[in-house]
Amino acid sequence: MSPRRAKATQGRVGDDPATALRGHLIDTAERLLAEHQVGQITTRQIARAAGVSDGVLYNYFADKNDLLVAALLRRYGQLLGRYDARLPEAGTATVEANLVAYAEAALELVAQALPIAAGLMTEPHLLHRFVADIHREPFGPQRLREPLAAYLAAEQRLGRLADVPLEAAITLILGPVIMLGFTELVGGQPREVVSTQLPAIVRTLLTGLNPS
What we know:
Elements: H1 3-8, H2 17-35, H3 43-50, H4 64-85, H5 95-118, H6 124-134, H7 142-157, H8 166-187, H9 191-194, H10 198-207
Helix pairs in contact: 2-3, 2-4, 4-5, 4-6, 5-8, 5-10, 7-8, 8-10
């Protein structure tokens, strides 16, 4: 390994050198994406920031775009991990409080994922690839819907939720969440303002629109 490559992967004790350097390149790309518009990032810029020669990138990625998409997918995967960690279990608290927690977690995910896609609007080929990749395993729309479906089904088994069509209930919860995520991104409203609507949305879903 050259001195530059050795320096780049320093501190990754126990890692396979190739795996460590690939991770280091993704780290670097992710940092540059946070600092620059995607169209401004060059292969040479990534190499210099990573402390490697220009050609090293092509040992691990097909091209610059392949690396940038890998960095964006890792960021999206981290968002999904945080979403999963925030979800309550059936039978705890109240159904209303739990559904608000689900909606808040989903809003956090949507509100942070949308700017990733928005940042690629000037690079349509990258945007299309990113969107295609997040709709495939291990990602996909099911990562957002399946935990909520499992939660609602479990609450039905516990008798804490009526025998309602689950797909319709999921759409009624996630639909407003996605809309509010766009409201935050496009309208510039702060998260704390946008999220105040979630308890009323959930309460309306649970009680219905007809007078009692």
